[in-house]
Amino acid sequence: MCRHRGIRRVIRGLNGILDYSLLLLLLLGLVYGCYALWDSQNLAEEATSEQYAIYKPQEDTLGFQELQSMNSDVIAWITVYDTPIDYPVVQGKDNWEYVNKNAEGEYSLTGAIFMDSENNPDFQDFNTILYGHNMVPNVMFGSIKEFKEQAFYEAHPYGNLFVQNRNFGLEIIALIEADAYDSSVFNINITRNDSIPYLEVIRNHAVYMNDITLEADDRILLLSTCSSESTNGRDILVARITDQTYKDTYSAKDQDHAGHESVDRRGGWRDFIPGWKTALFLVLLLLILICFADQWICRRRRKGRK
């Protein structure tokens, strides 16, 4: 009899350990979920163009020169009007260096907007390719997907490129979709003689494309980012670099990009709503799981007493 009682005590002890281990796992799951939310929010804040606003070339270029003194890989500044794309451009020794390093040269999962390592840093190649992460909410090159809406594409035709202490205009001419390994698109070695066939490649991949005629000395810029729709897919915004600059007619509109919330603002309460909705969902889910676990534990204990 004593032996049976000892066995039952051991079983109850093991059951207790199992029960509390389950509760601990649920608690750890909540902690991890909250940390993941905080980390993703912090990462998005690090990637906003506001972080680099003090370096943006204005009437003087002292801020931009300061950034270049911090990181000699900084070569330009790109802006697509009325979008969050408003960043310094860097060029590394290869196309991996700035995947996880920001424009200040520091480690960051947000990366930087960087030029293909094979391109000429003065943007004199016929086609220059810039890369940037597709991040939520629309930071870095995350807003390129917005151009898939025709109304958005047509309403955002211009931008600006600052390079070698001079401003150039950007005229948006196409939005294309391509595979990351499509060498016909991601081809840096396009000569002036190859410009017409290359433009036809762009046309064949186009979601939208303006009816344009390229001149002999025209240059184009491709802004490439990962597609949300396929693993190897790339969404690419194509612009013509022009000597003529275009006025930013949106700057007087509080930078409210195309009617949705500007991601350049930091710390606004609206910025945290999506995160807190998810956090609330996680808390409610945890409470439901705890209730189920509590009922399960109680049933096990009642059976154990019997």
Automatic annotation (TrEMBL):
<keyword id="KW-0812">Transmembrane</keyword>
<keyword id="KW-0378">Hydrolase</keyword>
<feature type="transmembrane region" description="Helical">
    <location>
        <begin position="20"/>
        <end position="38"/>
    </location>
</feature>
<feature type="active site" description="Acyl-thioester intermediate">
    <location>
        <position position="226"/>
    </location>
</feature>
<feature type="transmembrane region" description="Helical">
    <location>
        <begin position="279"/>
        <end position="298"/>
    </location>
</feature>
<dbReference type="InterPro" id="IPR009835">
    <property type="entry name" value="SrtB"/>
</dbReference>
<dbReference type="Pfam" id="PF04203">
    <property type="entry name" value="Sortase"/>
</dbReference>
<dbReference type="InterPro" id="IPR023365">
    <property type="entry name" value="Sortase_dom-sf"/>
</dbReference>
<keyword id="KW-1133">Transmembrane helix</keyword>
<dbReference type="InterPro" id="IPR005754">
    <property type="entry name" value="Sortase"/>
</dbReference>
<dbReference type="GO" id="GO:0016787">
    <property type="term" value="F:hydrolase activity"/>
</dbReference>
<feature type="active site" description="Proton donor/acceptor">
    <location>
        <position position="133"/>
    </location>
</feature>
<protein>
    <submittedName>
        <fullName>Sortase, SrtB family</fullName>
    </submittedName>
</protein>
<keyword id="KW-0472">Membrane</keyword>
